[in-house]
TrEMBL record:
Residues 50-171 form the DUF402 domain. Residues 168-213 are annotated as: Disordered. It comes from Amycolatopsis balhimycina DSM 5908. This is DUF402 domain-containing protein. The keyword Hydrolase applies. GO terms for molecular function: hydrolase activity.
Length: 213
């Protein structure tokens, strides 16, 4: 299974392969360990998104590139009918760090993937239940150039407020569930789906820190 992030024009910007842990057809719980080959994206001029000034980040075309998932392993809960997925972040020693809530526009599923559009705006939830917005400046820049519609932006903010209320109450999934998760050490890394262009094979270039969206 993979999580695919589409651009508004329908093209695929990123592909994250996942190890499925639970899936009832509506909610997917899956694992993405650090070091897993992914398809990431860069600006067409070769820069990572965060290397460009804010007013350029959503104006320059992007290209898909072979990459690796860096920094933290993630356990992901991806509900089919919600505008967010909750990511449990674990450090490289396997210790739970915090939750990162990726606000997303759901696009349904294909046989091997869940399809989403990254909503740019995100929520960070700490272990004590405190929370904050992340990437608000980028979301406003994306709105300004039409990367998000006002209706989508308002829906994403409402979803973030809903998530924040859950965090403040210590309600699931912010009640400690799965913070002690440990993967089987014998699990191989998830694999990208077959049929990707040869130019996007993770062995065709050097990986770099992933730039979402």
């Amino acid at each position: 299974m993979a999580e695919r992030f589409h651009r508004p024009d329908g093209s695929i910007g990123q592909v994250h392969p996942l190890r499925v842990l639970e899936d009832d057809g509506r909610v997917l719980l899956a694992w993405l360990p650090a070091g897993t080959p992914i398809i990431g994206s860069r600006l067409a001029d070769g820069r990572l998104m965060r290397e460009a000034p804010l007013d350029q980040r959503f104006r320059i075309p992007r290209v898909a590139v072979p990459d690796f998932w860096h920094g933290a392993s993630t356990l992901r809960r991806i509900p089919e009918d919600e505008w967010s997925s909750v990511w449990w972040f674990f450090d490289l020693e396997g210790r739970f760090k915090n939750w990162y809530v990726n606000l997303e526009i759901p696009l349904g599923r294909t046989p091997g993937a869940v399809d989403r559009i990254d909503g740019v705006l995100d929520v960070v939830v700490e272990r004590d239940g405190s929370w904050r917005w992340d990437d608000e400046d980028e979301a406003e820049a994306a709105l300004e150039v039409g990367r998000l519609t006002l209706e989508q932006f308002d829906r994403l903010r409402a979803e973030g407020e809903r998530i924040g209320a859950l965090a403040e109450r210590g309600a699931y999934p912010f009640d400690g569930t799965d913070t002690d998760f440990r993967p089987d050490p014998g699990w191989p890394a998830p694999e990208l789906p077959p049929g990707l262009p040869a130019s996007l094979s993770p062995r065709s270039g050097e990986g770099s820190a992933p730039a979402r969206r």
